[in-house]
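Reopening: C-alpha cells for the 5'-deoxyadenosine complex, inputs below.
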Amino acid sequence: MKQTAAPKTYRVKSFGCQMNVYDGERMGEMLQQEGIAEAAEGEDADLVVLNTCHIREKAAEKVYSDIGRLTKGKTQKKAPMIAVAGCVAQAEGEEIMARSPAVSMVVGPQAYHRLPAMIDNAVSGKRSTDTDMPADAKFSALPQRRKSAPSAFLTIQEGCDKFCTYCVVPYTRGAEISRPYAALVDEAKMLVEAGAKEITLLGQNVSAWTGEDDRGRSLGMAGLIRAIAAIPDLARIRYTTSHPADMDDALIETHGEISKLMPYLHLPVQSGNNRILKAMNRSHTAESYLKLLQRFRAVRPDLALSGDFIVGFPGETDAEFEDTLAIVDEVRYSQAYSFKYSPRPGTPAATMDDQVPLEVMDERLQRLQASLRRDQQAFNDASIGKTCEVLVERKGKREGQWLGKSPWLQSVHFTGDVAIGDLVTAELIQAGQQSLGGRLISP
Ligand code: 5AD
Ligand code: SF4
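Re-run output (same inputs, fresh job):
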C-alpha cells in the first residue's frame, strides 16, 4: 500500500443489530478524540468504517459490493481509506484482506479500541488485521461519553455461550463476558449527564449479566437494573436481547416493582415446535416459554412482548411450522422479527440434512408475517384511548410533527410545542400497524 495523508473526516456505516449501532457510536467517539471529525451528510469522508453484520444471508457479499462502490466513486467522489469492522471482519478478516486490496484494516468487534494505531499504520502504507478477543480490554480503552441522544444504548454483556445450532454469534462475538458493575453505573451516569432519558441495556444474552456491587456482593440483571434506576434524571430503562434460560425470579420481580423499567420484553422463542427447538439447541420448550411469559404477565399485566422467529430450520415439516403459528396465536406479540433460516458457515445446522427449499421458506415466512402483522395491529388498536408518556426522539416528516416512543416501544407521532428529549403526556388516538397517532396533553 502507498503512504497516504492522515484522515481528517470519518463515516461509520453500521449494519445489523443494536450492538453494532452502539459499537459504531463508540468508534466514532474514539475517532473524534483522535481529531478526526464526522463527515457531514452528503460529503466525502477520508475514512469509512464498514461495521458489518454476519447473522444472516450474504453478509460478506454485501461488504464486497460496498467496498466496490466506495472505490469506484459510486458512494463518494474520492475513494476513502476503508476499515472493515464488526462480525464479518471477525469471521472472514483474512479473506477480506486477500481479496480486497482497497481495504486498509480489518478489525473485530473486541479489538476496535486499536483503530487509531491501525489508522497510523495505514497512513504509513501498512495494512493491518486485528481480530483478537481480549476480555473487556476494549471498554477500558475507549474515551468517556459526552454526547447522547434521548434514547441511548449501553452494552453490558457481550458474547454467547448458548450455541444455538444455527447461529454464528458464539464464533464472531466470542464467549459471554459481563462488563463490571462500577464501569456500567459510571457509563450510565455519563450518558444521563450527556442527555439520555432512556437507556437500553444491550447484550447478546443480556440477562446472563453477572457482577459484583461495591461491597463485593454478587448481582444479576435485577440488581444492575435497580442500581441504574436509582440515577435521578434517568426516566426509562429497557434491555435486549434475552434468552429464556436466563430469566430468573429476581428479574421477573423487577418488572413489577421498578416503574422506570418499561413494560416491554424482547424474548425470542425461534420456533413453536419442541423437536425443532431441540435441534436448534434451545434449552426451552414451547410450554416452558409460555409458562415463563405467564410469570412476567402476572407481575406486569400490560407487558408488550416481542420475539424472533426462524422459519425453515433444516428438517422443519409443515406440521412443525404450524406449531410456530400456534404459539404466535397464543402469545399475541406486540411486534416481532422473523427470518428465513440461513445456513451460516461453521455452524452445526449448516451441514444438517433436509435443508428446506427456498420457496417453502418464502411461503412460511409470508404466513408467519401475516399473523405477526395482525397481532401488531391488534395491539396498537387496543392502545387507542390510553394516555401515556412519550419520549420525544426526533422530528417527523411533516411540518410541526414529532416522533417518540410509548412505554410499549410503539412509535407515536403528534404535533405540539415540544423539544427532542422531552417526556410528554399524550393520548393515543389513532393506530396503524407500525405507528400510532397521539394528541399532546402536556406540557
Ligand atoms: N438464520 C436465520 N435467522 C437467524 N438468526 C440467527 N441466526 C440465524 C440464521 N442462521 C436470527 C434469530 C436471532 C436473530 C438475532 O437472528 O432469530 O434471534
Ligand atoms: Fe445466537 Fe442462540 Fe446465542 Fe442468541 S442465544 S446469540 S441465537 S447462539
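DSSP finds 13 helices and 21 strands in the chain. The first strand starts at residue 9 and ends at 14. Marking as resolved unless the reporter disagrees.
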